[in-house]
Amino acid sequence: MENIERVYNFLEETKEYYLATIEGDQPRVRPFGTALLYDGRIYIQTGKVKNVSRQLAANPKAEICAYKDGRWLRIACKLVNDENRDVKVAMLEKMPSLKGMYDPDDGNMQVLYMKDATATFSSFTEAPETVTF
Ligand SMILES: Cc1cc2nc3c(=O)[nH]c(=O)nc-3n(C[C@H](O)[C@H](O)[C@H](O)COP(=O)(O)O)c2cc1C
Known about the structure:
By secondary structure, this protein is α+β, with helices and mostly antiparallel strands. The chain has helices spanning 3-14, 51-58, 85-94, and strands spanning 17-23, 26-32, 36-38, 41-47, 61-68, 71-82, 109-123, 129-132. It is globular. The chain contains three helices and eight strands; from the N terminus they run H-E-E-E-E-H-E-E-H-E-E. Strands 1, 2, 3, 4, 5, 6, 7 and 8 form an eight-stranded antiparallel β-sheet that branches. A hairpin with a 5-residue loop joins strand 7 (109-123) and strand 8. Flavin mononucleotide (FMN) binds next to strand 2, strand 4 and helix 2.
């Protein structure tokens, strides 16, 4: 399995993860749940009106942490905005619960993909394993 698929599958298993961004010299973190593997990239989804979106526009560096059953994953990456409408449609198809809040053409819905990612799988019992994609 490719590195990116392993990372995506872990996010699918945990269903939820924490996304950290930077605002000036202050870290900001919040729960997220959207993830989509599309065209060899992992996308997440948010709204442009949110602070998280503003923070990523000013500084795309982010870190994601997900945990399940004694294993955890940290992904350090840049999150890059993508205006490809097909990705937005695919995101809504995969996560229909978003359809009540977002529309690909509402000027708010935003998808971003992980770039220059370094992902580390850790556990209490095994040595950490780092992959890049
Ligand atoms: C389990 C869970 C998953 C969430 N997933 C997302 C998500 O994928 N995208 C999103 O924009 N907000 C998501 N939210 C809501 C954000 O955490 C919330 O809007 C947060 O305030 C955004 O950060 P900000 O206030 O710094 O902009 C989720 C909330 C929870 C509890």
